[in-house]
Design brief:
Elements lengths: L10 E4 L17 H14 L3 E4 L1 E2 L5 E2 L2 H14 L4 E4 L21 E4 L4 E2 L4 E2 L3 H13 L3 E6 L2 H12 L8 E6 L9 H14 L4 E6 L4 H10 L3 E4 L6 E3 L2 E2 L3 H14 L7 H8 L5
Helix pairs in contact: 1-2, 1-7, 4-5, 6-7
Length: 280
């Protein structure tokens, strides 16, 4: 019997990202209509958070606030109550452009509190930029999802939360498997979990695995009582030979693991309560 039996598990769907293209997998949703439709399918499969990037019509990355606003409108219409989480990641824009859509007041936004190496570049998040972005989220009452690519990011997030420098309840996501950042390592994962339990026992945490490791990290997180993320942003395959037919197929795999560990998939109402978010 699972130690965390009956604890609802929040499933986040990262629908598009900034890197995957239709050449990688034709199911990657690019246009607004595709993103809304793909999100609706994932929502019906159990996703209560939609982690959203936007793209230009040609598939290139964008941080256009109007595109974010249109996507948010579609998600709220077709996925009632879903938690809308905007990406402020560095692949979609530069500098304050990365937070230029926050005035549209999504429920959540991704938030990196430190720098690290990515496959071909430095993912730079300077102290001044982090301070500005956190103030924008406080201003618009947006709960951050801290994307932790390293142990130092977890510790910094805890410090910032304790100092009142982040809005709402602390929510930390361990990101494992990005080349040149933290690899998928069970010993490290277990240490991350213990750090959260020891240093921030009232906080919630989740975990995301990149590429083939997605399903592995999904299982680790669910088994350890956390929440988890899946979707075509992070992984375009079901296995080495098979492309994932949709975002919903990756969320369904995570939902199956919830059943294995006797954890119900969180409804949107439960997810909002767990994360301390305002009602839909």
């Amino acid at each position: 019997m699972s130690e965390f039996k009956n604890k609802p598990c929040i499933l986040c769907c990262a629908i598009t990202g900034s890197v995957p293209t239709k050449k990688d997998n034709p199911a990657v949703p690019i246009t607004n209509d595709e993103q809304v439709e793909s999100s609706h399918e994932a929502f019906e499969a159990g996703a209560s958070i939609i982690h959203a990037h936007v793209r230009n019509e040609d598939g290139t990355t964008s941080s256009d606030p109007d595109r974010f606003a249109k996507l948010k409108e579609g998600l709220e219409k077709h996925c009632p109550g879903v938690i809308v989480q905007f990406s402020t990641g560095g692949r979609s824009g530069a500098g304050k452009e990365r937070g230029g859509m926050l005035h549209h007041r999504p429920d959540m936004a991704s938030f990196s509190v430190g720098s690290c190496n990515f496959p071909t570049r430095v993912y730079e998040n300077s102290p001044d930029f982090i301070d500005w972005l956190s103030k924008e989220m406080i201003k618009y009452e947006i709960t951050p999802e801290v994307e932790a690519f390293d142990l130092s990011h977890i510790l910094q997030a805890i410090r910032m939360s304790e100092a009142g420098l982040m809005f709402g309840k602390l929510y930390v996501q361990f990101v494992m498997g990005v080349k040149n950042a933290m690899p998928v390592d069970k010993t490290v994962f277990d240490f991350y979990v213990q750090m959260m339990r020891d240093r921030a026992p009232e906080a919630e945490w989740c975990a995301a695995g990149i590429g083939a490791a997605q399903i592995t990290v999904n299982e680790w997180a669910i088994a350890a009582g956390g929440h988890t993320r899946a979707g075509l942003e992070d992984n375009v395959r079901l296995d080495k030979q098979t492309l994932a037919p949709s975002n919903a197929s990756l969320i369904a795999r995570a939902a199956d693991l919830c059943a294995k560990y006797e954890r119900p998939v969180a409804t949107v109402e439960q997810a909002r309560a767990i994360l301390g978010l305002r009602p839909a």
